[in-house]
C-alpha cells in the first residue's frame, strides 16, 4: 500500500509446507506493518484482504495462519474482524519475550 509519502504498509505471506496436487495449501502471514501516520485508515485491512482474496481464489488453500503478540490489541482486532479465530491462545513467546497467540482463518466453502 502506498500514499503520497511513500509506502503506507506491507504484508509478507507465503505458502507453508510441501506443495503437490494432493497437498492443500496453508498460507502463513509472516508480517504485517503499517506506517505510524497511516494507521487507523484501513491500510492493514486492505493488505490482509488481498491475502485472503488470494486464499479464496486458490482452490487448494485450506487455511491462513498467523501469530500475533497477545498484548497487541489493534492487530488482534484486525485479524478477528477479518474472520480469524484463536487456534492456540498461548503459543509460546516471541524473541522479545512477548506472549504469542496463534490465529487461523478458514475460507468459506461456496
Helix/strand order: EEEEHEHEE
The best one-word shape is globular
Oligomer: single chain
Strand order of the largest sheet: 3-4-5-7-6
Radius of gyration: 15 Å
Instruction: Determine the fraction of residues in helical runs and give it as a percent range.
Output: 10-25%
Summarize the main sheet.
Answer: 5 strands, mixed
- Decide which structural class fits the backbone: alpha+beta
Strand percentage lies at 35-45%
User: Please, what is the average pLDDT?
Assistant: 85
State the total count of DSSP E strands: 7
Number of helices: 2
End-to-end separation? 29 Å
* Poorly predicted residue ranges: none
List keywords for this structure.
37% strand; 7 strands; two-stranded antiparallel ribbon; 5-stranded mixed β-sheet
Walkthrough of the structure:
The chain is an alpha+beta fold and 110 residues long. It is 22% helix and 37% strand. The chain has two helices and seven strands, in the order ββββαβαββ. The strands form two sheets. A five-stranded mixed β-sheet has the order 3-4-5-7-6, covered by helices on one side. The longest helix has 15 residues, at 43-57.
What is the fold's blueprint, element by element?
Blueprint: E1 2-3, E2 6-7, E3 9-16, E4 25-34, H1 43-57, E5 61-69, H2 73-81, E6 85-88, E7 100-105
Amino acid at each position: 500500500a502506498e500514499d503520497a509519502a511513500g509506502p503506507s504498509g506491507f504484508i509478507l505471506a507465503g505458502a507453508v509446507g510441501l506443495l503437490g496436487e494432493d497437498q492443500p495449501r496453508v498460507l502463513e502471514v509472516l508480517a504485517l506493518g503499517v506506517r505510524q501516520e497511516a494507521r487507523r485508515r484501513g491500510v492493514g485491512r486492505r493488505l490482509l484482504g488481498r491475502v485472503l482474496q488470494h486464499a479464496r481464489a486458490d482452490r487448494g488453500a485450506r487455511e491462513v495462519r498467523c501469530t500475533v503478540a497477545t498484548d497487541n490489541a489493534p492487530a488482534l482486532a484486525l485479524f478477528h474482524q477479518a474472520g480469524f479465530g484463536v487456534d492456540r491462545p498461548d503459543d509460546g513467546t516471541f524473541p522479545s519475550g512477548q506472549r504469542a497467540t496463534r490465529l487461523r482463518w478458514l475460507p468459506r466453502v461456496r
